[in-house]
Amino acid sequence: MGRRQQPETVGVLDRINNLPDSILSHILSFLPNKEAVRTSILSTRWKYLFASSISILDFEHCLKNLYEEDVNNFMNFVDTLLFNPRDRVHLESFRVNDYFVDDEDDYLPLYGWISTALSRGLKNIGINFINEKVPVLPTLLFTSHSLVTLTLFLHIKDDMKIPTNACLPNLKNLCLTNLAFEDGYSILKLISSCHVLEDLTIYDCCFHSISELNIHNLLLRRLILCFEHVCVRDYDYVMAIDAPSLVYFEYTGIVGKGYTLSNMKSLVKPEISISHFHEVHSERSATQLLQGTCNVQSLHLAIEAFNETFFRTHLDPKLVFHNLVELEFHSYYCYRKGVRLVEFLHNVPNLKTLILDL
């Protein structure tokens, strides 16, 4: 039976080999990267064929615990992929980390990969650097005209350097985690350089030497702010948000020094989760934070830390939720939370649905 099938199998292989490179590359594009790369050993013709089929490179979970020889082989592979003489790979998405980096010199080839991918019209990039000492990121990362999504997860202690000529005209999604900015101008420069920004996420970033953090964007539709692991002393500034197109707003962490939330009439269902409070400004800041959501019809509110002044907002005539018909309330550690919640409900005269998790 095996001998009868052999000529048929050879015929199939011959028909595949007779296909033009463009069709073979298209076929390989449906395979996982690992399987597509394995075809490079079939013959000389197939050696670089896989390169043109790869549009996504994700090294996020494959570089841990590698031996030195494996690291060298991996770096040679990426060099072959990005700089192969036969076909220029055009990536859409690139995720990279520095798990295999020992010192600053090791970042040179890594930065070369990033710059090369960006110069070829890369649309999405995610960078996860765990080392505290990282050279200044490539300028092209902040001046790319092709990037649509930029995700930065850094553990560096030094302040983030944003080039003065930063310009990301097509960037729609920006996610910043664990970054430190030396002043408010740097983050303002970065946000304002994204002319069509729609989705902004800021996780546990520190902003030094500023009195106000200003987030102003006419097109922003989704905003996530998380300050769960930020020290109170690093949150000594007022946050000003002006986003008339904002539909989704999520705030998690400490209640800071103060808030100015304006032009947020497009909000649908904001989610506010308070883990702890700035001791000096708690009552006023909590009122300001909620005041920007007064026009919504649905609100998700979670309080994980006891602060009695948070529920004294019924004393403030400005904070009345006339349009609110659905309230989802979560609280786990608040003392007398039932009494305080009843007091808070005086501010919600038209409430129809109340969901409690106490």
From TrEMBL:
Q: Which CDD domains match?
A: F-box_AtFBL13-like
- TM region(s), chain numbering: none
Q: Which SUPFAM superfamilies match?
A: F-box domain
Q: Where is the F-box domain?
A: 13-59
Tell me the protein's name: F-box domain-containing protein
- Species: Gossypium raimondii (Peruvian cotton)
